Design the sequence.
């Protein structure tokens, strides 16, 4: 386990020594005003990012063979520069394969992934439609896909942007979807929940979470909607008797889940299950973004009667934390 | 009780005599090509509308004193004109006050209103916030308002456009809202459900349901959002110690429930309860519109693999009835 | 070969007898004002549509077993009704399999399909990229797909809405694309022309051209962009060493060819070949729509200095036929 | 009266001593790179804002009990930092209640408020409609409301953003409105001018002008349109015989005065007086914004043939000062 | 003078003989169901339009040489067809040059054109800027242009769509513009009023008012903004010392007067005079449209508490006639 | 010829002496923190811009009489400041008229202008329409206009933003236009190519390229579409028998070439030649912007699998360089 986190460095005394594992997010060659080469690094862990400087890259204690995406062990000292903290690095080596856990280096879900996974499995087990149950079982029998599904973030930056974020988002939607399916007789529950589970499955290839969260070239050019629908279509093709109508409906749910053409769905929801999926997906993403924003305000010490900053995924709106505001002065 | 409904007239033989109560929706003086005056009426009941002609308005068997909005008893015969059915009217008199029930003359909810009302009452009883419970009790202690709330349609034409539609819509939202409030710890359940109950209360004065569903002048110029917020603000003003913060939050939920400025909300949702209210309100209205559209397709004898007509409240989209399509050929 | 075409019926004398093959586009059961059943048909051939009435469906000379999509032989007489011509049908039977050619019953390209096809083949033969050449050869080695590609219309109604329209449109784009590829060194010619050939291939399943041009349910719910990209992706998967980068680029061209998210492309063009494809596709569709509109004006006898009607695919714009206007009075 | 204004500080010599009253707009606790605490203040007066630093907050000459919104007397010295001027503060105490006038600390109208007010009063006196005259008299008989109306800015930042700005804007509109009412016989002058006077009255509670110009929470969540319409509706409710139709019309003018739903009006103008109010309000706000922008260009020494910067309230347009440009070279 | 107007025909008895002058708006050759040729005409005068039928075009009493745009004298009888009145024409000849006045045949301003013109002249006489005064004098010294300016409608259909409408609109704007120029010291009065007079001058060639109001081909392809700016630029070019800056400003006012790019102005208003011109032009057009709409409601016998139909130039809004509604029941 | 270029300064050693000609883009008077006056200059040449400081403006070696737009010779030394290079200037004088070529001081086309010009001339020579050939010859017989046409940039910053850019863009479009005209029989080649040559001719007065690329006041207020159409209209007016129809068509092509009202065209393309001109103009501008962006990525050392930055003229899209990416690893 890591014992120093970037979030803690702000409280270090000027010049204190430190020693720890970090992920290399950016590595740049630069020169000083007096033309001396140095390395500028951006290092990250699950709590944040920090700039690091290697003023003498030729020092034998500085590894030569590391690159963006590597985990490194560094020794150095923190110093304040303007209002930022910067790290001066004296030693640096590439970490051994299992010296540190990935979940310490990138932000992760606060939920127990195994627990989330077993909830997913039990929802699938509850399906009465054998074809949909078979489809999901087949997909998750692929251990590589299942592992990626457990690890993937739900987004690059807007909501659930952490390891396990996709799974966390799906589980939240399954609970909501179950309630809504029970409420409207029109809805086919298994179809709706299949859509919930599969709508973002293309993110396992659209995003890369090796060094920070980034789009792959394939992800940028094709998008998770296409990637996911092809992945699911292939799985259905392999099932001998998967009903063609059901296939069209499942694919339609993936294609239309963004709800608007201008959000990148090539089709608008044309069945009630797709409409509901779009609503719940949007609602859950926004509720998560609000929760994160409120947490940030508390961390930043903002008073309860101050609105949040402008929230990108809510059209730059500023929000008020109802419960906190109502309780203000009562505590 | 009425014994002849407009929906049944299409099956009448040419010229068959008929006799029944109808609501006068439109009354126009016209002249024939040979310059003879006649009356053109549009008559309605809960099942639809029909054109009626009084070819001799001076006939003593035709009342002189009736007008738009009156209930009348007519005797005449059905005839086919192009593809429409028309009624030739021989006798017409204004109905006595209790000869026929309003719910026979305008479309009404298919639910038991008393049952819906008791669900509403029990939700309010479950509130733990005494101020919100007090506000709702006070409002519904006004028997005139409570009666209007039970009668009002939820809209003029888009969704729940029938007597009792507002209450039916609110009850549906209460169930959904309760599930969602339980799902997100961020949400203040009582505040959310108060918003659910009050968001459309201004419709009791925006709409008139005397002769068909129409906007009042006040409704057209001020809108149900303003009317409702003022109505609720007055009720809060009368409660001695209603907390000012809570007042602001309740009013904000009414003002922002359309979710977008261009839909007539003067403020966007800025608290999570308002955001959820907007989502659920929109979802429930759309699900109801889809249900009506699917019912219409079945009534019109459309095959299961034909999309619906273009649905106005879903941006002119055409929809597919999932369950019916999947079951096609299986029955 | 057919010897009577709908476009010619306008010049028939009232009541003249006629006899010919037509496609049944619509078949409806109706009743007269006096409650007698009759059949209302919409019949089509490649020159247009006409309404037909069977006043006595029980007549033994009227087949009982025909339906929408069938080709029928009818005997009857033309009559004028308001400003329309209508056909009164006395005899009707289903046509034998090869009594009439499909291309007489639906509008078709005026080009020689075999000639267009050989142009396509020779463009593919000119490719220097072996992977793209292999991909296209593989696809068109499937005789069913090749046949559908030769038959498909390019659209349901906007442009090239006739049998062979897709191929005609593709050939026009190949010529343009070749010029543009030669003009800009940035462009990879084979990639651009592959995109030209494959961009609309999903239309072979999005549209049905059995009885008029219609969307299939699969087409409505998934769209030709998805259908085409999956079809092409499968073909690439079967080629042992198709380069993954090239695969991403080809799929990107199909996905992005509508050029805007709101036109149903889930991705905007992000490579120069995709940008050019979108421009040329749009330009050719509009030029074809203008040509059709100008032809229609001439057929309708409009003078050269009168603008066309409002053209749907050009934002309801009205156009002027330059050459015709400049030559007016010179002839 | 204040004798030092922030706008004058730019001309101070480095290190010159100064001594004056300012409004505390922001107060932040910070630490230096060497971990010493200091205070960062933003101080304002009617001419601008300046950053102030208290490097030793424990100094007994620095008051401990002041906060944002307080008026303070400070003694210190000006110093240049990059291109900005900063104040180093040696002494600081809270000002006594009447040591300095509010109008010295926040930007104020350049007009005589008493004069503006008497113009308003005489316009009301000229009304021939007794109900509207009564309504306005009643409202302004409330001395607290009348005082707030005289003090309020018209906006937080876009136009008339100074004390007395609301009144100045209203007076300008009354002159314009009077001309336009005389020009179009369709218009009811008293109704139009009532709308002019009351359209922004909700700003007295939407905005706070204690420490700079800020939105209140109530203002953010409800908006001045709602606040104003409720305030006016209450006043009408208290008048025994205020005609209901007139009430609807006055409220409609307040609700619709932004002219577009997307600008926060829940209703579009549906009477000609509301349409005119929206036009004049918009015109006057823009003309004021242009005037301010032209004044700024002159203050900044821009030549007459240089366009202004991009003006936010005119869609980022750049403007040319006609008179100045035409006179250039003539002086 | 004409003695029969189309608006009066509705009250004619079936078959009554009539005799009068009309403008031929449309002339079409048609054939009856029994293949006999007949003429379908649309005839107009200043009060409306009517359909006319010549059932026997070979009758020697029917002129052979008339066409669209001609004034004709017809004799025939009125008959009712469905709810419309139609004229059966027995005799028809082309009118002699001065048998009837143009102002009887097309809708005209209700103002005295000579009076409007003298108001325009006296405004120009009041200018203090000699260059602008010279420009306007020069333009209107051209008798053909001056005559066209007095005759032109202001629009094809939206507002002031009658002979003299342009001049009427300009005079209304001059009064408004004079008030506004006096109100804002920023404004150059003569420049503003020059813009008012010239902004729509291109309509004298954009529109044709020979047979109804129509766009010329030049008007359709170039638009009145271009036509007008070129016309004015040429006039300035001919004035020996017209100041170049003033030229740019006058042209800018014409180019920008629609106020938005999407309304066809190639430039947004960038000087305050252009901004004001756009506001007043828009306001006056809308006020005139509202006045026409209210007049129509009264003519159609609508009650005072019924909203108007949807007004095209006000985004399909429905309006309420304030004064009429407030007076309802008082008369 | 210049021997030092700004792009080379980054590689200078700290403090190295330098000596060269530059264009003064900005000249500002400033004072240091200790109140000493100094000059801040922005100097440019065809390779970029650099900040220069004259710390002692009173030094006799510093010219007093230079201004923005002048070419100056400076002597000084480069120094690094943060990550930028800055020049400390010791001597400065205004350059003599022919000491340095304009094309060294502003970015220029990399093509041979004489060669481009002769291509233009030969295209005009190929015209078969004598009127259009005459129009173009007349225009370019004006040596001042021809020279400006050879020098002008095509835009201020988006595409072809360099001396000769307009001509380079026109030549590129002529080649494309010739291909497209040959492809569609509908098109009048000479009219299309006339539109290509003249569409942006107004830029010779909209832009100024004396000191950097800037809009003139005339350009800002009138725009190149108006300026160009007037310039061309005047030329046609001078040709004795230029056909009026052709005049309308040529002007329409200039007015409509931006393709959308919101892009500043007062008319949409209404003839097929105008539609094609708009397509090709847009395509060529975008292809050039992409080429520049790809060149920039290579200069900046970005890897082939990294997308470009957000491209302004492509809606902030990021692009991939196909050929470079496919070749990556193959070299």
Sequence:
């Amino acid at each position: 386990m890591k014992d120093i986190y970037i979030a803690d460095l702000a409280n270090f005394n000027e010049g204190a020594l430190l020693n720890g594992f970090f992920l290399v997010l950016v590595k740049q060659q630069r020169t000083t005003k007096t033309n001396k080469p140095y390395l500028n690094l951006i290092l990250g862990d699950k709590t944040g990012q920090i700039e690091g400087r290697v003023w003498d890259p030729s020092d034998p204690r500085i590894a030569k063979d590391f690159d963006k995406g590597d985990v490194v062990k560094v020794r150095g000292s923190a110093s304040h520069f303007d209002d930022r903290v910067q790290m001066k690095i004296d030693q640096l080596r590439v970490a051994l394969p299992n010296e540190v856990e990935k979940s310490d280096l990138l932000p992760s879900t606060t939920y127990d992934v195994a627990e989330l996974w077993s909830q997913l499995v039990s929802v699938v087990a509850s399906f009465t439609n054998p074809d949909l149950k078979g489809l999901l079982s087949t997909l998750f029998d692929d251990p590589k896909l299942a592992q990626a599904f457990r690890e993937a973030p739900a987004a690059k930056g807007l909501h659930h942007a952490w390891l396990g974020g996709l799974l966390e988002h799906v589980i939240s939607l399954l609970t909501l979807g179950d309630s809504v399916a029970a409420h409207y007789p029109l809805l086919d529950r298994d179809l709706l929940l299949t859509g919930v589970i599969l709508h973002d499955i293309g993110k396992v290839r659209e995003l890369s979470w090796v060094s920070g969260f980034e789009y792959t070239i394939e992800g940028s050019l094709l998008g998770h909607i296409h990637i996911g629908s092809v992945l699911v279509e292939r799985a259905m093709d392999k099932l001998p008797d998967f009903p063609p109508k059901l296939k069209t409906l499942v694919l339609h749910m993936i294609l239309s889940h963004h709800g608007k053409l201008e959000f990148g769905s090539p089709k608008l929801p044309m069945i009630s299950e797709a409409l509901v999926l779009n609503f719940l997906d949007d609602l859950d993403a926004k509720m998560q973004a609000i929760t994160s924003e409120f947490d940030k305000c508390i961390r930043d010490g903002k008073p309860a009667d101050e609105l949040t900053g402008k929230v990108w995924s809510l059209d730059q709106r500023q929000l008020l934390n109802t419960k906190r505001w109502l309780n203000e002065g009562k505590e």
